[in-house]
Amino acid sequence: YTSLQHPRRKYPPGPKGLPIVGNLFDVPMKNGWITFCDWSRRYNSDVVHVEALGKHIYAVNSAQAAKDLFDGRPQIYSDKEQSVMTHELSGWRRAWALSPFDDVWREHRRLFHKHFGPGVASRHHHKQEKAMRRLLLLLLDAPEDFSAHIRYAAGSVILDVVYAFDALPGDVRIGQIEPAVQTFTALMETGVYLVDVFPILKYIPAWFPGAQFKRQAAQYKHLVDVMFKAPYEQFKAAWAKGVAQPCFLGSLLGDSEMALDYEREDFLTNLTGTVYAAGSDTTVAAMNTFVLAMVMYPEVQTYVQEELDRVVGRDHLPTMSDRERLPRVMAIVHEVLRWHPPLPLATPHRTMSDDVYNGRFIPSGSVIFGNSWAMLHDPATYPAPHTFDPKRFLTRSGVLRDDVPLPTEVFGFGRRACPGRYFAVDMLFLAVAHILAVFAVERAKGARGPVDVKEEFTPYVLSLPKPFRAHFWPRFDGAEELIRSAAAADM
Ligand code: HEM
């Protein structure tokens, strides 16, 4: 322990900072996962470090170091930064995905797990399948609006599962929520988050968001409060009348165990409202990445469609019960998540006490990024990591290999790792299986022939393909009829 008290502590390597401001200008505003990965190579260290204005920032770039720290030392590495701008002024403190490592978080997480854990996620399958049948119909009728349809499908299934809302496209209940989700993206993109991490930036005029930001934050907070409260109140009204349908919130309200000491109302509002915020944009990002990969790598479609035709046939749509028999579809899901993780730096954790790792110092209150992208692009584990190649997960005979690790880091780290991952993987399995069962995904037709796509992703916390065009063609005679009759059965 004496090394901790040594006046010249040894930190992990990183770029050399300037006097006083330290590495302020090195802290990456965009594509941080690539910068951190480059530093890791340049300084030959899986953990890299910068310091700016007294704040220490670390990026963990290898799966081994992530296991050692996040899994091995959960009492130190499971907290999250609380920021004035995002949490307080803009109302995001309600989201337990961002909350401190405390008893209220623990209780939120325990109750969520009870309804979304690996053994019970199957209770949501019929709602997920219904959302997919609707998605196919939308893609059939307006293929080029695929990105909007994906957003609808990912959002509406969460409303159905959490509040038993059966929302069609354009439903006001979706309109109430989506703008609030977008405030989070806006906060990340304007760099407000950095002001929070380095409070001293508030005194630098160019950085300080000032009165205008405070007005903006008040508007955000209003939207965020509506997102959490409105669906909750609507469900409670149905519950009081005895007409509520089964869902997550209904099970919570009906659970005798819910006689908790917490202020019960806000506890449940925040528990349920966080699901849409955490689960919609992430799923949307992965599904758009899937479409981009299909346009770029058409031969992958043929390979998977052979499996779908053989296992499922062409006279009905796939269901969750086909999953074990569709390893090629699962290989696509894993490769989509590996190729471009929706949260390439997961979400930053915060240390709760001083620590030493491999002889290097990590003080209490540091920001720690787990660089999922770097781990999932490590050529030692995934050769030719920039190529989209689902076959890397399959044996020659086409079953899932057990010697190539699944991209678990896409779901984050330690105690804070995504508890919605079973639900998310089920959703992605269904999306890939449904879309490829009936459609050929191709380049859009422009005035001068097919429109090429670029492999470009947005550079912030949540990273998804930049807008691109694609077309969805029914791929066999009878595909259109199959889509229409399956969707009609739900009406
Ligand atoms: C492809 C889709 C998804 C990806 C890539 C993803 C990824 C992540 C990541 C990286 C984290 C942060 C982990 C960390 O800080 O170490 C997280 C947290 C979380 N996710 Fe997901 N997620 C996805 C879908 C979902 C879905 C569908 C739900 C809900 C049904 C969900 C619910 C949550 C919650 C509640 C947290 C906060 C956990 C906590 O703080 O304890 N996620 N997710």
From TrEMBL:
<dbReference type="InterPro" id="IPR001128">
    <property type="entry name" value="Cyt_P450"/>
</dbReference>
<keyword id="KW-0472">Membrane</keyword>
<dbReference type="GO" id="GO:0016020">
    <property type="term" value="C:membrane"/>
</dbReference>
<comment type="similarity">
    <text>Belongs to the cytochrome P450 family.</text>
</comment>
<comment type="pathway">
    <text>Secondary metabolite biosynthesis.</text>
</comment>
<keyword id="KW-0503">Monooxygenase</keyword>
<keyword id="KW-0349">Heme</keyword>
<keyword id="KW-1133">Transmembrane helix</keyword>
<protein>
    <submittedName>
        <fullName>Cytochrome P450</fullName>
    </submittedName>
</protein>
<keyword id="KW-0812">Transmembrane</keyword>
<dbReference type="Pfam" id="PF00067">
    <property type="entry name" value="p450"/>
</dbReference>
<dbReference type="InterPro" id="IPR002401">
    <property type="entry name" value="Cyt_P450_E_grp-I"/>
</dbReference>
<keyword id="KW-0408">Iron</keyword>
<keyword id="KW-0560">Oxidoreductase</keyword>
<feature type="transmembrane region" description="Helical">
    <location>
        <begin position="422"/>
        <end position="441"/>
    </location>
</feature>
<keyword id="KW-0479">Metal-binding</keyword>
<dbReference type="GO" id="GO:0004497">
    <property type="term" value="F:monooxygenase activity"/>
</dbReference>
<dbReference type="InterPro" id="IPR050364">
    <property type="entry name" value="Cytochrome_P450_fung"/>
</dbReference>
<dbReference type="InterPro" id="IPR017972">
    <property type="entry name" value="Cyt_P450_CS"/>
</dbReference>
<feature type="binding site" description="axial binding residue">
    <location>
        <position position="418"/>
    </location>
    <ligand>
        <name>heme</name>
    </ligand>
</feature>
<dbReference type="GO" id="GO:0020037">
    <property type="term" value="F:heme binding"/>
</dbReference>
<dbReference type="InterPro" id="IPR036396">
    <property type="entry name" value="Cyt_P450_sf"/>
</dbReference>
<dbReference type="GO" id="GO:0016705">
    <property type="term" value="F:oxidoreductase activity, acting on paired donors, with incorporation or reduction of molecular oxygen"/>
</dbReference>
<dbReference type="GO" id="GO:0005506">
    <property type="term" value="F:iron ion binding"/>
</dbReference>
<keyword id="KW-0732">Signal</keyword>
